[in-house]
Amino acid sequence: MEATRLGTVGIVVENLESSAAINAVLHQYADIIVGRLGIPYRQRGVAIIALAVDGSMENISAMTGKLGQIPHVSVKSAITKN
């Protein structure tokens, strides 16, 4: 069994019509999401989502990869080394 790692995932949503697809991916990986903070920035027409995650590198990478494939979505992560 692979050890779990802690980390943060930052998501910038430039088109709010992508929200349903984002929520579907996040629901699929709900077991590794420790916390979620969503910030609608109405003046700029974007949303920022911050996730705290605890999971295997395989699952974290799979989730960020799927999120990154959604149009108008940018994703970056910072994960513990061990």
Quote the average pLDDT: 97
Radius of gyration from CA coordinates:
13 Å
* CATH-defined superfamily: ACT-like. Chain A, domain 2
Number of strands: 4
CATH topology: Alpha-Beta Plaits
| CATH class placement | Alpha Beta
Q: Main sheet, how many strands, which sense, barrel?
A: 4 strands, antiparallel
**Helical segment tally?**
2
Structural classification: alpha+beta
What would the principal axes of the Cα set say about the shape? elongated
CATH architectural name: 2-Layer Sandwich
**In what range is the share of β-strand residues?**
35-45%
User: Oligomeric status of the shown chains?
Assistant: single chain
Main traits of this protein?
82 residues, 2 helices, alpha+beta, Alpha-Beta Plaits, FeFe-hyd_TM1266, 27% helix, 43% strand
In short:
InterPro entries: Acetolactate_synth/TF_NikR_C, ACT-like_dom_sf, FeFe-hyd_TM1266. It comes from Candidatus Mailhella merdigallinarum. Helix content is 27%, strand content 43%.
Spell out the blueprint of helices and strands:
Layout: E1 5-13, H1 19-28, E2 33-41, E3 46-55, H2 57-68, E4 73-79
Antiparallel strand pairs: 1-3, 1-4, 2-3
Protein name: Iron-only hydrogenase system regulator
InterPro entries: Acetolactate_synth/TF_NikR_C, ACT-like_dom_sf, FeFe-hyd_TM1266
